[in-house]
Amino acid sequence: MSQFAVQVLGASSAAPAHGRNQSAQLLLVNGRQYLIDCGEGTQHQFFRFKIRPFRLNHIFISHLHGDHYLGLVGLLSTLHLQKREHELTVYGPEGLEEIVAVNLKYSETELNFPIRFVVTDHTAPQELLRDDRLTIRSFPLSHRVPTTGFVFKEHPKPYRIIKEKLPENILLQEIALFKQGKDVLHEDGSVKYAAAEHTLPPKRSRQFAYCSDTRYLPEIVPHLSDTDLLYHEATFGVEMAARAAETFHSTAQEAAQIATQSGVRRLMIGHYSTRYRDLQPLLEEAQAVFPETQLALEGEITEIPEL
Amino acid sequence: MSQFAVQVLGASSAAPAHGRNQSAQLLLVNGRQYLIDCGEGTQHQFFRFKIRPFRLNHIFISHLHGDHYLGLVGLLSTLHLQKREHELTVYGPEGLEEIVAVNLKYSETELNFPIRFVVTDHTAPQELLRDDRLTIRSFPLSHRVPTTGFVFKEHPKPYRIIKEKLPENILLQEIALFKQGKDVLHEDGSVKYAAAEHTLPPKRSRQFAYCSDTRYLPEIVPHLSDTDLLYHEATFGVEMAARAAETFHSTAQEAAQIATQSGVRRLMIGHYSTRYRDLQPLLEEAQAVFPETQLALEGEITEIPEL
User: Are A116 and A23 in a shared domain?
Assistant: First the structure.
């Protein structure tokens, strides 16, 4: 069973409060680490949760409000001190490279690892990365500054061969056909082995989507189709709907509406306003619309099973 | 009894480790707060130790290594969200204003309080501020980038009037003379009331000095004369003396030597390398040279009594 899981490192909005750190999440895919947002103190959370960033090669920054990126320069400095040598790619809005460069200039730091910046497009969907396991895309959100969401999707998987039914003397190239879900044919075109008898359908390609920060934005629904776990910001409760609209944030109810419209399997809400010490009302508000809702809680790992 | 105290908010060097935050200290003078260095996560420490920065008007940054200033932009953003309106002055090396400006530019934040930057001079001593209680000076340290130390000194205090001995019908202007330690004279120049009989000498003008980061630098001794509490970095123990020299840091022994040469009353060491989980060896190394040494420990407040 391969791992596909999300670990929350911070779920507070704006200022840290009630012991909660600012936005940061780690997507864990078979030990590989994809960091999404990097609020101030993210490196402290790595230390706190005993996470060694040895398999961190890609960092995704949704937008340039401090609570989503101010931990980046510190994390880079620590990776530098840890003698990291392999390349790191940072995806984020225009300006992030300049911010990092100005900091490194005055500390007279020349990182001993290559760092590559990829500018995200907040006006249109974009494929950011396709590695051997995942395709990662960004799509526009609507906040007060250029902001994108991110979708992390596993590649399509092979059909699963039923080992007990595997014919003796089957050839490797015939197995390859099974993995594609294709029948093995005789030379005359008749069926030698039917795929349907010897294989099971592929396991799901799991998908995680991250939407923070944004006003209620039904336009994102098409980007969220086939999502196992949706993280959607829920800065406020409905009682603060006017404030949410004014600040381009969402309520817990709106996050749940997006989850419902997108047909996702599970919703995780977070980016809580500092006004909420108790998060239960936000959870209940979302669950009233979309029962499969959970709170983003620091340190917790949400496993997405390979069905 | 008026307060003059130092609260440590962080004492780790380089990376946060062993639950220790990076450099930040608050000087508390009758409720006023002077922040010295502002490592990443300093605002989290404000929250943790329930410090409300209502009386924070001056921030002093020793140098532009990330572990000494990366918390500044986040703190400014939080002060902004808290609707601060009164001016804040930030003292630090050339470049700090640019770093703050670049961050605020991309977050499209216009702070709702005025911020004033004062560039410190790392080549010569400088008076930074003289308010109604303190004179604050910087002086050069020797580190890998431009760095200054800071000295915070109370103004000279009045002679203390012995109330029981206060003559009846004494005039206000005669009391004013007592406060300056002067005799009250008759018109013919003869002594009416001798100051020595009616007053006690002034209480000490307390002084706190902050030296981080620096190699062992005896040239700073003259700036430290008459210091009640000296904070001096002690990144390493003597067993790492070569590494200390190479990185322009001090050992605990060297910090204690500076304390001895300066004749300070008390030494506080800090800025511990992440290699030291247990700080006791660093403390003992310093105490062997200068017994009145204490460790900088997060949250702890060191009161400097008004003798």
Answer: yes
Number of compact structural domains in chain A: 2
Residue ranges making up the domain that contains A12: 5-157+203-303
B83 and B49 share a domain?
yes
A67 catalytically annotated: yes
Is ipTM strictly over 0.90? no
DSSP conformation letters of A166-231: PPTT--HHHHHHHHTTPPEE-TTS-EEE-HHHHEEPPPP--EEEEE-S-S--GGGGGGGTT-SEEE
A275 in reach of chain B (CB within 8 A): no
pTM of the model: 0.91
A70 in contact with B at a CB cutoff of 8 Å? yes
Q: One of B67, B131, B183, B213 is an active-site residue; which one?
A: B67
A50 class by beta-carbon count within 10 Å (0-12 exposed, 13-18 middle, 19+ buried) = exposed
Chain B residues inside the 8 Å CB shell of A61: none
Other CB atoms within 10 Å distance of the CB of residue A82? 15
Tens-digit pLDDT string for chain B (307 aa):
689 999 999 999 877 778 899 999 999 999 899 999 999 999 999 999 999 998 999 999 999 999 999 999 999 999 999 999 999 999 999 999 999 999 999 999 899 999 999 999 999 999 999 999 999 999 999 999 999 999 999 999 999 999 898 888 889 999 999 999 999 999 999 999 999 999 999 999 999 999 999 999 999 999 999 999 999 999 999 999 999 999 999 999 999 999 999 999 999 999 999 999 999 999 999 999 999 999 999 999 999 998 8
Cβ separation A14–B108 shorter than 8 A: no
Residues A123 and A218 in one domain: yes
Looking at the structure, tell me whether residues B146 and B135 fall in a common domain: yes
